[in-house]
Write a structure and sequence with these properties.
two-stranded antiparallel ribbon; five-stranded mixed sheet; 241 residues; 7 strands; 8 helices; single chain; alpha+beta
């Protein structure tokens, strides 16, 4: 006659089997979700790529049409600016220091995105001697997120190594992958504030070739480095990534 197995052992075996089954099911569901998320990210990337190409083609078409009619095509005012701090803390007025804190530019060579409106343009003019800014292209936004992108989760700086980081941070507003995040920032979408606050300020390096000490304090339009440089900001970012 086989020895009787104690009831406690049977209960333990049943519990272990149940836990193992739950773990197996959770693992299967996680794999399925990861596979689906990957499909969704690829689809979103393709959709946004077509959207950017269509917008570019429309702009070229409008320019050609205006030229054919003997006029000029005036593109819409930019909605997004990229600000880079180029000076330290010495000699910064309290008002300028406060504005740079609002823009999260606490260190030299920090960069952040800002939605352009009347109030932000006014603030930018007050801090022009300490920063340079311009209008980033979609390619520049993409490079910054992919190469220097860090997210803010539980007040910690987490590298964006996976779409799961983005989903955890801003998934509640429909931003679930890098393509969604880049699109929301570049187009200044309805959830720009959440997406931008999720992104930690970019920490760039000193530009290749450096800034000239003679022209660093001079406005860009006068041959210097500070102030608004329009679309030339893309060339500077390329040197600083």
């Amino acid at each position: 006659m086989a020895p009787k197995v104690p009831e406690s052992v049977l209960k333990k075996q049943a519990t272990q089997a149940k836990v193992a089954e739950q773990a197996k099911q959770a693992s299967y569901e996680a794999k399925q979700k990861k596979r689906q998320d990957k499909k969704d990210a690829i689809a979103a990337s393709k959709k946004y790529s077509e959207e950017y190409k269509a917008a570019e083609a429309a702009a070229v078409s409008n320019r050609r049409e205006a030229k054919a009619q003997g006029g000029f095509y005036v593109p819409p005012m930019p909605k997004l600016a990229l600000i880079i701090r180029i000076r330290g803390t010495i000699g910064v007025s309290p008002k300028a220091k406060k504005i740079m804190q609002l823009f999260r530019l606490r260190q030299i060579h920090n960069a952040t995105f800002v939605k352009l409106n009347e109030s932000t343009i006014r603030m930018l003019r007050l801090i022009e001697p300490y920063v340079t800014y311009g209008y980033p292209s979609q390619s520049t936004v993409e490079k910054l997120v992919y190469k220097r992108g860090f997210g803010k989760l539980n007040k910690q700086r987490i590298p964006i190594a996976d779409n799961s980081v983005i989903e955890e941070g801003v998934g509640s507003v429909g931003v679930k992958c890098c393509a969604d995040l880049i699109h929301e920032i570049y187009t200044v979408g309805p959830h720009f504030k959440e997406a931008n606050n999720f992104l930690w300020p970019f920490k760039l390096t000193s530009p290749r070739g450096g800034f000239s000490n003679k022209t660093k304090l001079v406005h860009f339009l006068e041959g210097g480095e500070a102030g608004n440089r329009g679309e030339e900001i893309n060339k500077l970012v390329k040197r600083m990534i």
